[in-house]
Amino acid sequence: MLTGKQKRFLRSKAHNLSPIFQVGKGGVNENMVSQIADALEARELIKVSILQNCDEDRDTVAAHISKGAGAELAQVIGNTIVLYKESRENKQLELPRS
C-alpha cells in the first residue's frame, strides 16, 4: 500500500502526463487490463481517461483496472485515473520513504 507521502509524490510526477488509455462505452475488458499492465511495466506511472459515454462509474473502473493489473491507485480526479506499479525491469521512479 502507498503512503500519503508516496501518493503525493506520484501525483506530482503524473501531473504532466497525458492519458494513454481511454475507457468508453464498452467499459473495462480483459484485453484492456493486460495492455494497461504491459504499459505499467514499461512506464510505472500512467493515466487512464474515462470517457463521458462509459456506463460504469469512475470508482468501479479504477478498482477493476488496478486490481486486474496489480497496480496501486494513486489518484482518481475528475474522469482521470492515475495508476502506479513498480517495474521489474525498467525501474524509473524512486518512491520517498514514509
TrEMBL record:
Keywords tagged on the record: RNA-binding
GO molecular function: RNA binding
CRM domain boundaries: 1-96
UniProt cross-references to InterPro entries, sorted A to Z: RNA-binding_CRM (IPR001890), RNA-binding_domain (IPR051925), RNA-binding_YhbY (IPR017924), YhbY-like_sf (IPR035920)
Record has Calcium as a keyword: no
Gene3D superfamilies to which the protein is assigned, alphabetical: YhbY-like
Origin: domain of life: Bacteria
Signal peptide start and end residues: none
Pfam families to which the protein is assigned, alphabetical: CRS1_YhbY
Name of the protein this chain belongs to: Ribosome assembly RNA-binding protein YhbY
Source organism: Mesobacillus zeae
Matches recorded under SMART domains: CRS1_YhbY
Entry annotated with the keyword S-adenosyl-L-methionine: no
